[in-house]
Write a structure and sequence with these properties.
Layout (H helix, E strand, L loop, with lengths): L7 E7 L8 E6 L2 E7 L1 E5 L9 E6 L2 H4 L5 E5 L5 H4 L2 H8 L3 E3 L1 H13 L8 E3 L5 E4 L2 E7 L8 E7 L2 E5 L18 H5 L7 E5 L12 H13 L5 E4 L5 H14 L2 E5 L1 H12 L23 E5 L9 H6 L13 E4 L8 H13 L3 E3 L16 H11 L3 E5 L3 H13 L4 E2 L7 E5 L3 E3 L7 E3 L3
Parallel strand pairs: 3-6, 6-7, 7-8, 12-13, 13-19, 14-16, 14-17, 15-16, 17-18, 19-20
Antiparallel strand pairs: 1-2, 1-21, 2-3, 4-5, 5-23, 9-10, 10-11, 11-12, 21-22
Length: 447
């Protein structure tokens, strides 16, 4: 299956009909462009399977079997569900990778761990930069998300132009970088955008997603009244949240420590690329045991109940750097990813059995977590600004995709194309969707 000079195709291999393991292909004139190459954690390999694999990604066989046609790989941002599989799959592709400075730094550290140091051609790009990648012309547009340097892009060909959002939200006070600016997206309305391929994660939620600044304020109010140790579980790649917690520690007279290799690695990457504020110190986790309880603020991994992560070890009281006691507080500052509810509830029950308090979003009126994805009003605004001819919802379960398409229709987007992984969206010369055009699946990755 090879696109001709008249064809413009979109083919999702992962992340459309599910949340996570994003892997998208664009096809034109005998070439393919990959956008994102991510993982999910603790997922079954086949629907209905009871056993899970620790790290899972979309099966790349379709494109790895014609890797000579793969012009390049673009990574939109540094979250695991967009970049996590690339170090382990790159040998199957062996093509250049295009991404921003922060994501490049995170990626290089991952490549060292798999023996690919200095072997992968990584081309760093900046906001508004334009690169010719094979037959595709790609321009990067800055937006806001919960990680440094998140970018949308336009993908231009002689037969049509596509806007690919990546992960985003409209955040005017994002704690990291500049607030969301509509100007670049309003300008796209003049560019005759054929299709907008758009994040659907929060398409079922009305209104706007609260700002990262709101979360900072909520965490500050929560922690300011505490007299004992406070532990916060969050995603290691949520650098905006880590900066917020650094500010909370400073304002409440606590010392901030990170427990978990992925957390320390992410903050190190943020420092190297200028995204970590100089006035926010971090202490070695080994020093936590010497501090009074009221001076401890530890950030840890494992907010989804992952069995080998730090929160589980803290619950079992076998964490080398920190032991918790009755009346200490554990805050879950992360969304409950669908499918992880039971694991999270078991973890909270384990803490409760030791009289350690837990706090989740549903337990408090204060904002202790905000999503990095757009709710319905944000989707409506972006569709109205960009004015694409077609809306293509991605990055969501079927109900999220349908809800995104509904918003697009209400926003006067003429056409909506809802599909699944493996469906071929033929956008030129005519528009149609070939269902199940490519066999897709999942593979387990070893780290």
């Amino acid at each position: 299956m090879i696109p001709s000079a008249e064809d413009l195709w979109f083919l999702p291999l992962g992340g459309t009909g599910e949340i996570g393991m994003n892997m998208n292909l664009y096809g034109h004139d005998g070439q393919w462009l990959m956008v994102d190459c991510g993982v999910s954690f603790n997922e079954p390999l086949t629907p209905g399977e009871l056993s899970t694999s620790e790290v899972v990604c979309a099966d790349p066989r379709f494109i790895s079997e014609q890797k000579e046609r793969l012009a390049g790989i673009v990574i939109t941002h540094a979250h695991e569900d967009h970049v996590g599989a690339l170090p382990l799959l790159w040998r199957r592709f062996k093509c250049p990778v295009y991404t921003t400075a922060f994501t490049a730094e995170v990626l290089r550290r991952k490549l060292v761990q798999v023996g690919l140091a200095n072997q992968v051609p990584i081309i760093e790009v900046a906001e508004n930069e334009i690169k010719k990648i094979g037959v595709f012309t790609v321009k990067w547009l800055g937006l806001t998300h919960s990680v440094p340097e998140p970018y949308a892009m336009t993908i231009d060909t002689p037969v049509g132009r596509i806007f690919h959002t990546g992960d985003w939200k409209i955040d005017k006070q994002p704690m990291l970088g500049k607030g969301f600016s509509p100007a670049a997206f309003k300008a796209l309305a003049k560019e005759n955008m054929l299709a907008m391929v758009c994040d659907s994660t929060n398409a079922l939620k009305e209104g706007f997603s609260p700002s990262e600044y709101d979360c900072y304020q909520g965490l500050l109010k929560t922690i300011a009244t505490e007299k004992n140790r406070v532990v916060v579980g969050c995603f290691s790649s949520n650098v905006a949240r880590l900066v917020a917690l650094g500010r909370v520690a400073k304002e409440t007279g606590r010392y901030l420590a990170l427990i978990g290799r992925s957390l320390t690695n992410m903050v190190s990457a943020a420092r190297v690329t200028g995204h970590w504020p100089d006035d926010l110190p971090i202490i070695d986790a080994a020093h936590l045991g010497y501090l009074p309880r009221e001076e401890v603020l530890a950030v840890v991994t494992g907010s989804q109940g992952e069995p080998r992560a730090t929160l589980n070890r803290l619950a079992a009281d076998n964490c080398f750097d920190l032991s918790l006691e009755a009346d200490d507080l554990v805050i879950f500052s992360a969304m409950r990813i669908p499918g992880n509810e039971q694991a999270i509830d078991r973890l909270a029950a384990q803490f409760k059995g030791r009289k350690i308090r837990t706090l989740q979003s549903q337990d408090t009126e204060l904002t202790i977590h905000v999503s990095g994805h757009p709710c319905r009003e944000e989707l409506k605004q972006l569709y109205t600004w960009v004015q694409p001819q077609w809306a293509i919802p991605v990055h969501g379960e079927p109900k999220h995709l349908d809800a995104n398409a509904d918003v697009a229709k209400l926003s006067h987007v003429p056409g909506q194309l809802v599909g699944r992984n493996g469906d071929l969206y033929q956008l030129a010369p005519t528009v149609t969707v070939r269902r199940h055009a490519v066999k897709t699946g999942r593979i387990a990755l070893l780290r």
